[in-house]
Amino acid sequence: MKQTDFVGGFAKGLQVIEAFDAASPQMTITRLSEATGLDRATTRRCLLTLVELGYARHDGKHFELTPKILRLGHAYLAATPLPRLIQPHLDALSEEVRQSASASVLEGTEILYIARAAQKRVMSINLTPGSRLPAWCASMGRVLLASLPEAEAHALLQRSQLQPFTPFTLTTEEAVMAECRRVREQGYAVVDQELELGLCSIAVPLADISGRVVAALNIGASAAQVAAAEMPGLYLPTMRRIQAALRPLLRPADPRAGIQGV
């Protein structure tokens, strides 16, 4: 892309939007300036523009996003058939195994949830389509990382903050890459309480008809209810069946449209 094609103001506005999260749903100009690295004047202009357009509100001190911001995420969900194709299969999987099931895609250093069927809440945060988790320590992230060329996976990990969420979290690039190689060989990933204590999960990649991995599918369960070591035996056959059923429905992306084709 030519530098002249880059719209700096638009990029800064997106930085401000992305700074809001579950831990910081309301922020002052100063806090947002610190979070984004933008100066206060630029941050203020971005925020006031969002308020004027209805994407944010201001109580005199704090700013917060409004429900209108969901239109931005809905545009993706409406434009790509992936969530619509996957959701019925997720619902069936969740009902059959009586556990929560999810699907996600790789977005930068994170996984982005695009579909979910919840039986019960297994994490302290409420996961819904649009939720994000660090790719390197999530089961879906591991299978998506394993699908990348090693150089790309290394580069992604170098951009990630490999912090210990629990005593079981792998926190070195070498350890995560070794696990990704194992995932690539066996075709699935199991994560045992690395992201949150009491949570284990299993994931498989979802490939299109050309063999390119386009998403990941997982089942999450309470570690007190299902041991991580038991998950492949309990859930992998059913997940493999859904994996095979979805493959002929997922067609390579149309380069003219820039979205997943059907």
Write down the Rg.
20 Å
Q: What's the tally of helices?
A: 9
Helix content class: 40-55%
Total beta strand runs = 11
How many domain regions?
2
| Proportion of residues in extended strands | 15-25%
Shape: globular
- What is the CATH topology classification name of the largest domain? Beta-Lactamase
> Main beta sheet: strand number and arrangement?
6 strands, antiparallel
CATH superfamily of the largest domain: GAF domain
- Major β-sheet strand ordering: 6-5-4-9-8-7
Give the distance, in angstroms, between the N- and C-terminal Cα atoms: 28 Å
Order of helices and strands: HEHHEEHHEEEHHHEEEHEE
**Mean of the pLDDT scores?**
88
CATH class wording of the largest domain: Alpha Beta
- List low-pLDDT spans: 254-262
Which structural category do the helix and sheet elements fall into?
alpha+beta
What is the correct CATH architecture of the largest domain?
A: 2-Layer Sandwich
Fold and architecture overview:
With 262 residues, the chain is α+β, with helices and mostly antiparallel strands. The chain has two domains: 66 residues, Arc Repressor Mutant, subunit A, CATH 1.10.10; 182 residues, GAF domain (Beta-Lactamase, 2-Layer Sandwich), CATH 3.30.450. Helix content is 41%, strand content 22%. It is built from nine helices and eleven strands. The protein has a six-stranded antiparallel β-sheet with strand order 6-5-4-9-8-7, with helices on both faces. The chain starts with 7 loop residues before the first helix and ends with a strand. The C terminus is likely disordered. Keywords: DNA-binding, Transcription, Transcription regulation.
